[in-house]
Amino acid sequence: MKWKRSKLEIYLDILKAVKMGINKPTNIMYKCNLAWKPFKKILNSLIENGLLTPVENGNRRTYELTEKGRDVLRYLATAEALVATLTSRRQSR
Asked: Which whole number is the average pLDDT over 83-91?
């Protein structure tokens, strides 16, 4: 049985999906395994906080990662690497 994801994990899943090039709302939603209403709420929050920006392509809307969004993902990668290093040191004792 899988554990329930935290809000932070869901937000980061969306940012990672957009970074991978998945930029259409429905595709992001499916990639992150979310229902439409919670997805829209989180998407709007990411836009309001400047992590994603909407891009109008004719009658379609896609989303791009902002520099602030990239910074968040870089910071996360650094934190994950630090935790992995600390964990491996602890296990080797």
From this structure: 77
Q: Count Cβ atoms below 10 Å from residue 16 Cβ, excluding itself.
A: 15
pLDDT digits (tens, 9 = 90+) for 65-74: 999 999 999 9
The H-or-E segment that residue 64 falls in is strand 60-65
Q: Which residues pair with 4 in a beta bridge?
A: none
On the CB side of 77, CA atoms within 13 Å amount to 8
Return the number of other C-beta atoms located less than 10 Å from residue 28's C-beta. 23
Distance of CA 34 to the CA centre of its chain: 12
- Any idea what DSSP says for residue 63? E
Tell me if residue 73 falls in helix, strand or coil: helix
Counting every residue, how long is the chain?
93
